[in-house]
Design a protein that fits this description.
mainly beta
Length: 100
């Protein structure tokens, strides 16, 4: 379970996919979002993650995570603890996001 927030609007949701560069979310309630908006995601497993909305296909939201050492450590820890049989690609630059 995740709590999604943008511009003071909140929705419960779920994390569908996660990498050190981005996150795909499922929003249970439609909240006003636009590409480029800052978004926060709160989960029990990782705490608070911050990013920027890169695409919207309701009810799915794609966001590029703000690359901080803290965010990277949270994602790495998540994969070690909750997904030990999956490897996370931690090398290379962030992907280029296409809009449209």
């Amino acid at each position: 379970m995740a709590k999604i927030e943008c511009l003071g609007q909140k929705s419960p949701g779920a994390v569908l996919d996660l990498t050190e560069h981005g996150i795909c979310l499922y929003s249970f309630i439609e909240i006003p979002l636009a590409v480029g908006d800052k978004i926060t995601v709160l989960t029990e497993e990782m705490g608070l993650l911050v990013g920027t909305v890169r695409w919207l296909r309701w009810p799915r939201i794609g966001a590029e995570l703000t690359l901080t050492a803290n965010n990277r450590a949270k994602v790495q820890s998540y994969y070690k603890v909750f997904k030990p049989n999956k490897q996370l690609a931690l090398t290379g630059p962030a992907p280029r996001w296409r809009i449209g």
